[in-house]
């Protein structure tokens, strides 16, 4: 398997896109996996990866997502589990091993739990299985600063999380597209070795162009695509707006 950053870059070059589809499909449980798989089929040449969260993982579990896993694999798209994993090492390894053994390619985890007895085991497992770990550095909701902005040792917690991302050798970081100044700070810490994925574009008010200019590599977009009457047109419009595909 390719390293996650290289895989995303390769897909971006081929598709002319910077968009990761957040396939956070709602509606009746029995229709969600099929709807997500159909989205991937329609958009596979216009996106670089697919991310799923509890919308699918909770009602269906990894075994129930087989259709989506196969669709992403056939399309050459990394499938990212947005679990914000935040537990002791043994639990982290069990969760990651289950996901990775069933077709997921990367997992989003919370560095708050710390390294020894926490993230150390997860990162070791991911390297053993040649899978990706992305650390949650700054979120997109209105209350994010209440937690991620807390001062610890004289600096905001998110900067400490960015330093951990670099020091621990994770594949990248999640940083809100609504906070270009924070993206710039995190980029200055990470250098170019690790990717920044930015959620919050569209419904949450993030500006994708500003996020990319500030140093984000890819944009995680969900509701603006999933809730669109024509997801293909929606993604094409976003890519044109960003100066990518079809520009």
From the structure provided, what is the oligomeric state, counting identical versus distinct chains? single chain
CATH architecture assignment: Alpha-Beta Barrel
- Order of secondary-structure elements: HEHEHHEHEHEHEEHEHEHEHH
What structural category characterises the helix and strand content? alpha/beta
Strand content: 15-25%
Tally of alpha and pi helices:
12
Q: Spatial order of the strands in the main sheet?
A: 1-2-3-4-5-8-9-10
CA-based shape = globular
What is the domain total for the residues?
A: 1
Number of strands: 10
How far apart are the termini?
31 Å
Radius of gyration: 17 Å
CATH-defined fold name: TIM Barrel
Describe the structure.
The chain has 247 residues and is α/β, with parallel strands linked by helices. It has a single domain (4-241), classed as TIM Barrel (Alpha-Beta Barrel), CATH 3.20.20.70. It has helices spanning 4-15, 29-43, 54-60, 66-75, 89-101, 115-128, 144-148, 157-168, 180-190, 208-214, 223-226, 231-241, and strands spanning 19-22, 49-52, 79-85, 106-109, 132-138, 151-152, 155-156, 172-175, 195-198, 218-221. Strands 1-2-3-4-5-8-9-10 form an 8-stranded parallel β-barrel, surrounded by 8 helices. The chain has a two-stranded antiparallel sheet with strand order 6-7. Strand 4, helix 6 (115-128) and strand 5 form a beta-alpha-beta unit. The protein starts with a helix and ends in a 6-residue tail after the last helix. The model has no long low-confidence stretch (mean pLDDT 94).
């Amino acid at each position: 398997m390719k390293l996650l950053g290289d895989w995303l870059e390769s897909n971006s070059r081929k598709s002319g896109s910077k968009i990761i589809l957040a396939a956070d499909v709602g509606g009746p449980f029995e229709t969600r996996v099929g709807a997500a798989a159909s989205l991937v089929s329609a958009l596979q040449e216009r996106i670089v990866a697919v991310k799923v969260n509890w919308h699918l993982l909770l009602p269906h579990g990894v075994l129930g997502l087989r259709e989506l896993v196969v669709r992403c694999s056939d399309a050459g798209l990394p499938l990212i589990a947005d679990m914000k994993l935040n537990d002791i090492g043994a639990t982290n390894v069990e969760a990651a091993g289950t996901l990775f053994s069933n077709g997921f390619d990367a997992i989003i985890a919370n560095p708050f739990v710390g390294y020894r007895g926490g993230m150390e085991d997860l990162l070791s497992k991911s390297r053993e299985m040649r899978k990706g770990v992305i650390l949650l550095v700054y979120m997109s909701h209105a209350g994010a600063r209440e937690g991620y902005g807390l001062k610890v040792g004289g600096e905001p917690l998110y900067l400490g999380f960015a330093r951990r991302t670099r020091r621990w050798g994770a594949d990248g970081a999640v940083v809100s597209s609504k906070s270009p100044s924070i993206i710039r700070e995190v980029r200055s810490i990470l250098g170019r070795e690790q990717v920044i994925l930015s959620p919050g574009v569209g419904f949450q008010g993030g500006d994708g162009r500003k996020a990319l200019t500030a140093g984000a590599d890819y944009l995680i977009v969900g509701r603006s695509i999933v809730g669109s009457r024509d997801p293909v047109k929606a993604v094409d419009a976003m890519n044109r707006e960003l100066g990518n595909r079809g520009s």
